[in-house]
Amino acid sequence: MIHMRVAYNLLIITILFICLWFFHVSIKDDAYYRKVLKGCMCVGLLMYFNRLLNVAMVEGFVGYSDALYSFERAVHFALTVMVYTLYAYFMLCLISPFGTYKKWKHLVFLSPGILACLLALTSPWTHWVFYVQDGVYHTEKCVLFVILVRAIYALGATGYALLKRHLLPQIFGRSVTLVAVFAAMQSTHFLLTRDESLYYSTLIINILILTLTTTVVDFYKDSLTGLLNREAFEQYVETEIGKRGNKAVYLIKLKNYEYIMDNWHESALLEVIAELATCMRKFVRIPAMYYLGVGRYVLIVHKREIFSEEKFFNQLRERVESTFDLNNVNVHLNLFIAVMNLENGKINKQNFYKYFTACDDMRYRSSEPLEIIRGDNIGIDKMHRYRSVEEAIERALVENEFRIFYQPIISTEKNKIISAEALIRLNDRVLGFVSPEEFIPISENNGKIMEISEYVIDNVFRFVRDHNLEDMGFEFIEMNLSVMQCMDKKLTEKLQYYLNKYGVDAKHINLEITETATNFDEERLKKQLTRIKSLGFTFSLDDYGTGYSNLVRVLEYPVDVIKLDKSIVWSAFHDRDNYITLKNLISMFHDVRRKIVAEGVESEEQKNVLTDLGCDYLQGYYYSKPVSEEEFLAFVGKYNIL
């Protein structure tokens, strides 16, 4: 019997040694909850060495004295409290981001355990928990406090884990259930027999279960961010979406992910992704946080959790408005957030995937550092429309269904058509006419914009080659560059290729950039435009007035023509202050040798006033809507003869 008790304790010690060795060689130690579990196992190891001492004293292997017995009992109580305290602390840190909380909160959580340990360690002198007299061990009233602390930590942690088990992968939920069963067994056995052997042995079994579970859970963790990964997210959707209870899902996307990936080393992109994850863990205290890859994060918030959406958005906005240093270059990040409220299981998992995919595919509507949309407003019809337009884009690229239309630009000095803006149009055989305002943002989202842009470049250069512009009285054709094109490192080489392919003079091509393009990487854009301008191209800044550009900022770019957005033009005819603003704006741009195009001209009154104000060029429906190449050439032939 003696040898059995010794062997039993040695077996437990061996198991703990194996767990610690396995933990050390197979699991990284950087995660906070792993460090806590490792500490819990180390304390458990000390606890069983102390139990070996107890067996040795009881069986007479070690000299028996009141002092040694008191020491053993004090260490016994202290270590058992520490084991349960660390067990509870581990559960809290594993399921929630408790490890990132302020230190005083950790101290409050640990204070009952610390107090119980101090009572136990000082009891040989104070006798508050126990005392030993003539080789007999006696308990005092404070022993109930020590037992209560252990019970609260054990039952509280297990109960908390059971309630939150759905937030982690299924393997964890099942392991927690198994741990709860063993905890119930050990508690029942102790209450009936007052025998602590099974009580602490079952605790070690639970630690072993959690050690193995933690190893498996790590397969569901993203190695870069430390957040749960796509597999864990899919498990959550399969098991939890559709159940009762209010949830909110936040899809957070890095809008300029592709730009950073294309223009910086991969390590810089990984650094940004990891830092954003760290920020979100710092800003919110919710356990269900996922990284799905390609710059996409997901937060799932349950109604009972403490979460301030407004505060989170403000903190995130403040961070992204500050620059990120990538290889000594300051870059602004733009985030897109789609909020999906799921109330009381009204959305099943099939519909959730549709909603989530629609939000993931949703076009960006602004260049704001933090763009927020509400997924609740997305209907099934909108989802189907989005998919249908995507399919139409694919068909148009494969079957050459895109068409280039031209809208005349008139010189106020010559009263002749001296230019035209090339505009892409899509008349799909299934959907009919699809507006560029619809298919361009979608193509920017799914990456097809580069293929569409190549189509436009090829057709415009061909048009310039096939028609003698100077004989027609033309100076140049305007062609739009998308934001992605502006940031394309190979854009200069591509334009040079088309110049050589069609043998055209670059002065006959004017490249339009939008004001929003200047909100990404300003220094890179300036260098890009300067290189292209050296080939002989001219530039226009389109939609001036819709963003945040001012005169000084515009002058930093090598643009030759400023195109005033129709909103500025129209407002001048309804408000005198706006009229004065437009007048001064035209004068200022002329002072710095920039030509002015007024867009949206729709009446003779507008034409006359804008001409009197000194606009160099006019463009709008008053002259002509965008028309096909054949109609445009016929219109030019008639108009310029007049």
Gist of the model:
The protein is of the alpha/beta class and 642 residues long.
What does this structure look like?
This protein is α/β, with parallel strands linked by helices and 642 residues long. It has 3 domains: 2-219, Rhopdopsin 7-helix transmembrane proteins (Up-down Bundle), CATH 1.20.1070; 230-378, 2-Layer Sandwich (Alpha-Beta Plaits); 384-639, EAL domain (TIM Barrel, Alpha-Beta Barrel). It has 23 helices and 19 strands. It has an 8-stranded mixed β-barrel, surrounded by 5 helices. A 5-stranded mixed β-sheet has the order 4-5-3-8-9. A two-stranded antiparallel sheet has the order 1-2. Strand 6 and strand 7 form a beta hairpin. Helix 1 packs parallel to helix 7 (196-217), helix 2 runs antiparallel to helix 7 and helix 4 (103-126) runs antiparallel to helix 5 (142-164). It is elongated. The model has no long low-confidence stretch (mean pLDDT 80).
